[in-house]
Amino acid sequence: MPKEEPIRLELFTVAELKNWLFHNITVRGLSDRLISKTRALAIVNNPFVNDGMNVVSAIFVGDDVAAYTAVFPDKLARPDRLVYWNTTLYVAPEYEGRGFGAIVMGQMSELYENNYFDHAAAAASIQNFRFLGLPVSFVTQYLLVQKAFANSLKGNLFKFFWRCKNWFGASKTRDYYRKLTHLDYHVEYVGAVDDDVYGFIEKHSEGDVFLRSKEMFNWMLRYSFDIEAPLIYRVRTENAFSAFVREGAMFACKVIDDEKVVGFYILKKAVNMLTIKYLYFDPSSKDLVFSSVFEHIYTFGVDTACTYNRELADYLFSTRYFHHKTQSGVSFTHPEGFVFDSQKTLQAGDGDMFS
Fold this sequence. Notes:
Elements lengths: L6 E7 H10 L13 H8 L9 E8 L2 E13 L4 E11 L8 H13 L3 E4 L3 H9 L4 E10 L7 H16 L3 H9 L5 E5 L4 H9 L10 H9 L4 E2 L15 E2 L2 E10 L2 E11 L2 E9 L4 H15 L3 E4 L2 H9 L5 E10 L22
Helix pairs in contact: 1-2, 3-4
């Protein structure tokens, strides 16, 4: 049973996060128990924050951290509005069942009212959103998965020989890849979205629920919520949403054909998985752009790929690199007054899912 001690609800501002990060000044229990320093650093460098903005809500029971959540702002280009994306929700196991999750989320919902959004929430968060009266819809995510092998010496050997066959032997996937290497296009990896790329994104995002600003794209590319840690087994963390990952590289890619940009996408490479976070393409060059995504998958040798784009999922499955294609619902929470057009699509990187 939790100790019967004073309960306090706290809000922390951007200015307080800056003082903690840069000057080691902590107030009212602010620490990396509430938010990782990597995530906090990203939020304080968000192009749409100000020092007085409240971004972290937490409940303490005595000195115990009982629950916390956070938000960050996003000035959308379409629709033209400032929204606040929910990111992280944690309730300590010994304090579950007391409504603390709903309280910290409710505090943020009251602060930001009709501009409080969430994408890809965990089941507990979805329950809290519904308790707060926020509509929860679901969008489709496609997962493509390779042949499953047992996690054993024998299974790993089978996996090794199967991959060798795909890379060097006679396989339809290998033959398909060899044909792609003769395509006459090139890829430019970029560290920022310039005016030309953003113009391409604007032109090819009419079917999306949201269009993020150029400033937001560049923030996402520069400030990840996670950081690669080669010796991750040596890392200590007090936060349930650890910022440390063994592998987590992001790639922003322009696909160029005949000196013309025909596609742009952002990929996130994790251990054995590639997620297509954002995807924009000229319909007349769809197959070429999809081919370049597949070349990344084949070169990385990942076991799993994730996309929200049905056409890309069908294309990747047709290469026979993957053995299974599944789909599942991912939550999208929005204010009561927001009209969600289910015929439009979310990008896999929307909300806090860019990282």
